[in-house]
Design goal:
This protein has 392 residues and is mainly α. Helix content is 80%, strand content 0%. It comes from Amphibacillus xylanus (strain ATCC 51415 / DSM 6626 / JCM 7361 / LMG 17667 / NBRC 15112 / Ep01).
Length: 392
């Protein structure tokens, strides 16, 4: 397993560098490496590594989401409050229900099967969006209007809506009764619970770091941060909280309460991210079954396109009556395209549940990763300098 991990790290690193020379995001190279070395192509990776793949990807996501939180200024969050909520809800619902209707007519799915597919596809990928927005924040693009913050906040809650509604349709498909009211109640419980949990854990970390009995050096402080964050993530998942959102909130609270520690953590986590991003994107790539993606065919592409068009319309509606220019709203559309993490995590659940449509749903979920992850990442990289103002 260690040899496979080293192969991913070194080949993923080289691929990212090569891709960056042609001014494309390095994650494209990493994804390709994962696909090539993964079980669906050359099958070079140790099976034991793939068994712990999800845990490694979760750790990498925790690292990047803490970094995202450590970059969220209170003033910027106030700017994007209501627009972020609209960005998290409207595009997700537009895409999910549009795909549901399209698959009803094009695939002869029932509305329940279409709903499952729709809300698998409706989730934005934090693995692609969050690192891209952090890069833009550091470069100063769109920060005058808090655009990276808007997208970070919106995308993190978007996943909560998508996964909750997918769970509702999956339960209906396997015959588990679940009322619409329970779904409506579950969404605010998930979001508010995730936020409150993140705040509580952050305050505990701050109290520990402020302890006068024990002095912690920079490395020990980082160990405390990551330990509490990972523990909270897994406990939050068990309690069905929006734990990824909570992890980002954790970083925000630490920045607000302890700016000195926040600065140290940002530097240390940036170093860890060099390794973590390679693990994240190569292992996401290893989950991609190219054969399944090809099986989805033209109809699969059409359904994905219908969903993306509906999502884009949703973004335009969500950003109407804000201080964003039309160019900036177009950028928000592009930034909301990538899909990867959630689709890789839940795309196989209908098939695992024994549903007849599960194979087709998985194939289209995989195809959505293949198409939109590179498209979104490249689009963000190329469009940001043209569509966003750079802070001088």
């Amino acid at each position: 397993m260690l040899l496979s991990l080293m192969l991913l790290l070194i080949i993923g690193f080289i691929a990212a560098k090569l891709v960056s020379y042609i001014r494309l995001p390095g994650l494209i190279g990493m994804l390709v490496v994962g696909v090539v070395l993964g079980p669906y192509l050359f099958n070079i990776l140790d099976a034991n590594l793939l068994l712990v793949s999800q845990d490694l990807r979760h750790f990498a996501l925790v690292v990047i989401l803490i970094r995202a939180g450590l970059g969220l200024q209170r003033t910027n969050l106030k700017k994007v409050g209501l627009p972020a909520l609209k960005m998290s809800l409207i595009p997700c619902l537009f895409e999910g229900f549009s795909v549901m209707i399209a698959s009803y007519y094009l695939l002869d799915f029932s509305l329940i099967e279409g709903g499952m597919l729709g809300f698998i596809l409706a989730a934005v990928s934090p693995a692609v969006v969050v690192p891209s927005m952090i890069e833009l924040q550091e470069a100063g693009y769109g920060t005058n209007k808090g655009i990276p913050t808007l997208i970070l906040a919106g995308a993190s809650i978007d996943d909560v809506f998508a996964i909750t509604l997918f769970s509702f349709f999956l339960s209906a498909a396997v015959g588990v009764e679940q009322s619409i009211l329970s779904v409506i109640v579950k969404i605010p419980y998930t979001i508010i619970g995730g936020i409150v949990g993140g705040i509580v854990v952050a305050l505990i970390i701050v109290l520990v770091l402020r302890s006068k009995r024990v002095a912690f050096n920079q490395t020990e402080s980082l160990l405390i941060l990551l330990t509490f964050a990972v523990l909270y993530f897994y406990i939050g998942e068990k309690l069905e909280l929006a734990s990824l959102l909570g992890v980002m909130v954790l970083g925000f609270v630490i920045l607000d309460r302890e700016p000195k520690y926040a600065k140290q953590f940002s530097i240390s986590l940036a170093a860890i991210w060099v390794f973590a991003q390679i693990i994240l994107f190569t292992l996401v790539g290893a989950e991609v079954n190219i054969q399944l993606a090809l099986e989805a065919g033209v109809i699969g592409l059409v359904i994905i396109l219908v969903g993306l068009v509906a999502r884009s319309l949703g973004v335009l509606i969500a950003t109407a009556n804000t201080n964003l220019s039309f160019k900036e709203r177009v950028f928000c559309i592009i930034a909301y395209l990538p899909k990867a993490t959630v689709q890789a995590a839940i795309g196989s659940l209908p098939l695992t549940a024994g549903l007849e449509s599960g194979g087709v749903i998985l194939a289209i979920a995989v195809l959505s990763i293949v198409v939109t992850a590179p498209l979104g990442a490249i689009g963000i990289r190329l469009s940001a300098p043209r569509l966003l103002m750079k802070k001088s």
